[in-house]
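subagent[fold] <- orchestrator: predict structure for attached chain, return tokens only, no commentary.
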Amino acid sequence: MNATALTAWRRPSIIPGFGLTLGFTLTYLSLIVLIPISALILRTTTMSWEKFHLVLTNERVLAALKVSFGASLVAACINALFGLIVAWVLVRYRFPGRRVVDAIVDLPFALPTAVAGIALTAIFAPTGWLGQYFDAFGIKIAYTWIGIVIALTFIGLPFVVRTLQPVIEEIDRQVEEAAATLGAHRGQTMWQVILPTLLPALLTGFVLALARAVGEYGSVVFIAGNIPYQTEIVPLLIVIRLEEFDYTGAAAIATIMLAISFAMFLTINVIQAWARRRFGDV
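subagent[fold] -> orchestrator:
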């Protein structure tokens, strides 16, 4: 640490209380995040490596991991695309019922996940409002992988929309007009001017939607059908292990899920950091 940085560190703030607030922050994060995660990892270390390897390579666990992370990635990509469109429409256009549409976006935040799962199942079941029409063509949505993706898309959309809205509002329309003046058509303006500006925020919304989807349980468990090796998600498998009083096995599965999530989000954060350096911090 050089002298300038040391001086800045010791310089008193205009608003006092740095030490108190820093201590509170570290204590709060430790109690809410670090200690529970540490307890989970410590519980897993009580297993022998052979037993942990059996859990890691168990076909049912691998199938559940594939369903959870695969469906979450697909749902997050769908939300990134359509969330961008919804946010753009809500910011750039004025139309009757706009405030109602804007309020509907927040509905997944307020709606209990179990209620959302029951509602989606009722709609997309073979005898449901929409499911009956798909069933007539031999397409099943409820109790399949498609139903899981729909549920995860439903609960993740607000994260993308609410992340993008303030960034779109800050885009100066004169930049778009300048691009048009220089001869760029609408497609070039969108791809070369607008999207690079929105990319960091879009990646942030994608990460939030993905994180929400990976740990989702309530809305998925009803529409998934919970068929082992096909539509069983990792959170449900953890609950099953707990109901069997296999607490160490449940902790091992949770640790595996934690490790994969950490690696995935670390990779995405590296991409976010690159996007901010490349296109500017928004």
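orchestrator: received. Logging for downstream: Residues 52-279 form a domain with the MetI-like fold fold (CATH 1.10.3720.10). DSSP finds 14 helices and no strands in the chain.
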